[in-house]
Amino acid sequence: MERYDPLKIEAKWQKKWEETEAFKATEKPNVPKMMVAEMFPYPSGAGLHVGHVRNFTIVDVLTRFYEQQRLNVMRPFGYDTFGLPAENYAIKTGRSPKEVTTENVANFRKQAKSLGYAIDWTREINTSDPEYYKWTQWCFLQLFKKGLAYQKESYQWWCPVDQTVLANEQVENGKCWRCGHEVEKKKMKQWFFKITDYADELLEDIDALDWPEKIKTMQRNWIGRSVGAEIDFAIVQDSRKITVFTTRPDTIKGATFLVLAPEYPGLDFIVSDDAKDKVEAYKAAAIKKSEIERQENKEKTGVFTGAYAINPATKEKIPIWVADYVLAGYGTGAIMGVPAMDDRDHEFAEKFDLPIVETELVDRDAYGTLKTTYRMRDWLISRQRYWGCPIPIAYDKEGNPHAIPEDQLPVLLPEIKDYKPDKSGRSALAKAKDWLKVKLPVKDPKTGETHMEEMTRETDTLDGYACSSWYLWRYASPHDKKAAWDPEAIKYWEPTDVYVGADHAVAHLLYIRFWCKFFADQGYLPFREPIKKLIYHGYINAPDGKKMSKSKGNVIDPLDVINDGYGADTLRTYEMFIGPVELDAAWDPRSVGGVYRFLNRCWNLLDDVVKTDKNLVIRNKTVKKVTSDIYKCQFNTAVAALMEYVNELYKNGATKEDLIVLAKLLKPFAPHLASEMLEKLGADDEWPKWDEKYLSSDTVEVIVQVNGKLRANLKVNTEDLDDEQKIIDVALGLDKIKKYTKDGIKKTIFVKKAKLLNFVV
Ligand code: ANZ
User: Fold this and answer.
1) Which pLDDT score, from 0 to 100, does residue 87 have?
2) Ligand 1, closest atom to CA 254?
3) Binding site membership of 258 for ligand 1 (Cβ less than 6 Å)
4) Would you list the DSSP string of 370-386?
5) Which atom of ligand 1 is nearest to the CA of 373?
6) Can you say whether residue 406 is alpha, beta or left, with left for phi > 0 and alpha for psi between -120 and 50 degrees?
7) Cα(57)–Cα(52) distance, rounded to whole angstroms?
């Protein structure tokens, strides 16, 4: 027969799938649904990389697996297109971010199609499309209406290279998550989402999620709930007090000093005149450090404020210090120093010669009001960059924010020439003079009358994570003109059954849970958790185990594998075979060749179909193994089981039934080849079943003892366990047993249940 020609077969099936809209998903009320999606990609100019292929192929294997089980599957696709890379590229090349993005999206689409994914292409979304971001703006306004989108002046992480603020979740080890440059602190008025309102629910609902433990732990730590007490300390010769947060109110008698964070509000009023300069200098230095640096176990620093407080338990006068190991945003930004009990306080006391006093513990609630605090802060969403979703807000002359009326959405991103932000910290939108002005209706609170007032639009754009906090729901009705999502479609398709990604453990995956709870509270969603099962997969590294990067020149282009003649099926199957899904893996070119040979072997089996069925056991075993492996996301062992099956078929000869089963099991991994095989065999692709009765004819091990001592292990067919005499005869034939029984046997005991045979001599 003809040889395996992947490029020909793949072109044929891709065309067929496209023409028949084979993966178009429609609601079927009586058929159980499966909604499977990847964390949608950011379409960079470089095109698909091997990591995308791993990500998309996992989703595709599940999509096809469920489809072959005749569930109603939806596998949509989208692009996360707003953000800095497109804008920076545009600045560098003088092209518009929109133009660049459109090109990148077209390329991604083409590449994804060449991999034969079972995508419903009618459900394609793009976050920078006005049709989409109109509804991102609508979401923002719902949060604004409920007071969960608000403005606050505070110190923010500022990336001097990207010239924009960053959320806490986007600062990694004191560096910008995008460009890696050290971040700074800058005082600015910014927009926030009040995620902290949902801290308790976000924490408590983690337990029930079918997500990897690693991610669940990261989220718990990020939220960081801590139960303790707030205790007031009076300041000496001052009417004010300092409130500290402590998880150990019972140690209060040992508190020999207070420590305030350098950013502590009102610190200036506490500091005595002669300490002012020193404290100012200390503050200026501390503000530049990241929280991580400040919590590192370095030598403690600090300055005395010159002021004292009274310990309410001992009535002693204790000094008030400023030190950067106390963080401004946590608890109250003030602590009681208990050096006899707390390591950090102990170090601090040693360094500055403060008293260390061992005392008895007091009742936990004697001085304190019970208080719960969280590490998680509100989510900073303002970005001073052009290429993002405009925040639908305008300011009146007094600077009060007003919502753009919903019927005026979307607030379109205006076309401009120069995308660079300016040094003032405003985005390039500040230069779009015509766009900035807008007339909005304002109701007079006294007369109730409405008049039009000229206002100035917000020039910050939304953090891209806002765009991706609701896109899974958009998939249910991607072209809806009346609503962000259609309630009926949502009820059928969502929540997402399986979500696959390799990043965003605390940022995206926490934000989307927050929005879900918020929109459930507003009656827009009938569920409170957006993602049932999460698969978090590892990265693919270069053959030497190092991270692939352009600068190291070790990037593997997945499309080269296809174009080298191996085809998409080899690429897909190889990336599933590369190792356990949750682990990083190194690319191995030889193994790519091995997978290609395996697919060739599958194909060549069609040449010689035999009549006698010798594969009943292995066939049933393989169906069971591949099925359960896919359920457990153990794709590598599923492929290995198929390879073993093919080896057996070569040994014993393959019947038509053997080949149909092979093609069906292979289809999630190598859908083109499998479809071609099934067509030739005249079979459909319905997922095969196994019969347990053939599996039990596997072998089991019988322990053979002489006088209770283990002397041999005997492999017998499971069904032979019923034939006691046969087992005894085989055992007595073994040299090891002959040696001990040559003088005669007194008694023979066979215990079938324990698979144990004992000769007494
Ligand atoms: C006295 C004390 C005695 C404390 C003791 C601990 C042990 P977790 O568990 O992480 O919530 N603390 C409070 N606010 C702080 C801030 N803004 N920056 C740095 N440290 C702060 O930690 C709570 C404990 O961390 C609090 O309880 C406080 O020290 C410190 F034997 O108070 B403790």
Assistant:
1) 86
2) 3
3) no
4) EEEE-SPPPEE-EE--S
5) 11
6) alpha
7) 8
| Integer-rounded Cα radius of gyration of the chain | 33
Q: Tell me what pLDDT residue 205 has.
A: 98
Segments making up each domain of the chain, as ranges: 149-194+379-464, 226-373, 698-760
342 lines ligand 1 (CB under 6 A): yes
Q: Is the CB of 246 under 6 A from ligand 1?
A: yes
Average pLDDT over residues 204-209: 98
Task: Give me ligand 1 centre to Cα 277, in Å.
Answer: 28
Quick one: average pLDDT of 196-219? 97
Residue range 267-301, pLDDT digits in tens: 999 999 999 999 999 998 887 777 777 887 789 99
Edge-to-edge strand order for the sheet containing 379-380? 164-166, 149-159, 184-193, 379-380
Ligand 1 near 256 CB (within 6 A): no
CB 76 within 8 A of CB 475: yes
DSSP state letter for 239? S
Residue nearest to atom 5 of ligand 1 (CA): 342
Q: Which residue has the tokens 């005082």?
A: 187
**Residue at 695: amino acid letter:** L
The pairing of strands 257-260 and 317-322 is parallel
Give the chain's mean pLDDT: 94
Say if ligand 1 is within 6 A of residue 254 CB. Answer: no
Secondary structure (3-state) at 438: strand
Residue from 260, 330, 360 to probe ligand 1 pocket by mutation (most atoms less than 8 Å from CB) = 330
Sign of the alpha-carbon dihedral angle for 553, 554, 555, 561: positive
CA 375 to centroid of chain Cα atoms: 20
State the Cα–Cα distance between residues 303 and 9, nearest whole angstrom: 74
Encoded tokens for 405: 């009326």
**Could you tell me if 464 and 379 are in contact, meaning their C-beta atoms sit under 8 angstroms apart?**
no
Token look-up 């450090």 returns 289
Scanning 438-557, the segments in alpha helix (DSSP H) are 464-467, 471-474, 487-493, 508-521
Centre a 10 Å sphere on the Cβ of residue 59 and count the other Cβ atoms it contains. 24
CB-CB neighbours of 686 under 10 Å: 11
CATH 3.10.20.590 assigned to domain 698-760? The reply is: yes
Taking the complete model, does pTM exceed 0.90, yes or no?
A: no
79 CB less than 6 Å from ligand 1?
no
Lowest mean pLDDT among 8-17, 305-314, 640-649, 725-734: 725-734
Residue nearest to atom 29 of ligand 1 (CA): 246
Distance 248 CA to ligand 1 centre (A): 8
pLDDT reported for residue 722: 85
Q: Are 132 and 125 a contacting pair, CB within 8 Å?
A: yes
How long, in residues, is the chain?
761
Tell me which CATH code domain 226-373 carries: 3.90.740.10
Token pair recorded at residue 363? 């009742």
Ligand 1 centroid – CA 228 distance (Å): 9
Chain-centroid distance of CA 571 in Å reads: 24
- Tens digits of residue pLDDT in 691-711: 988 887 677 889 999 998 999
Distance from Cα 377 to the centre of ligand 1, integer Å:
17
pLDDT of amino acid 697: 60
Question: Distance, CA 157 to ligand 1 centroid (Å)?
Answer: 24
Å from CA of 166 to ligand 1 middle: 27
**For ligand 1, atom 22: residue with the closest CA:** 247
Answer yes or no: is the C-beta of 623 below 6 A from any ligand 1 atom.
no
CA of 247 to the centre of ligand 1 (A): 6
Q: What is the pLDDT of residues 471-490, one digit of tens each?
A: 999 999 999 999 999 999 99
Give residue 338 CA to ligand 1 midpoint distance, Å: 10
DSSP 16-79: HHHHTTTT-----TTS-EEEEEE------TT---HHHHHHHHHHHHHHHHHHHTT-EEE--EEE
Largest Cα separation within the chain, whole Å, is 116
Give the pLDDT band (50/70/90) at residue 657: very high
Mean pLDDT of 235-245: 94
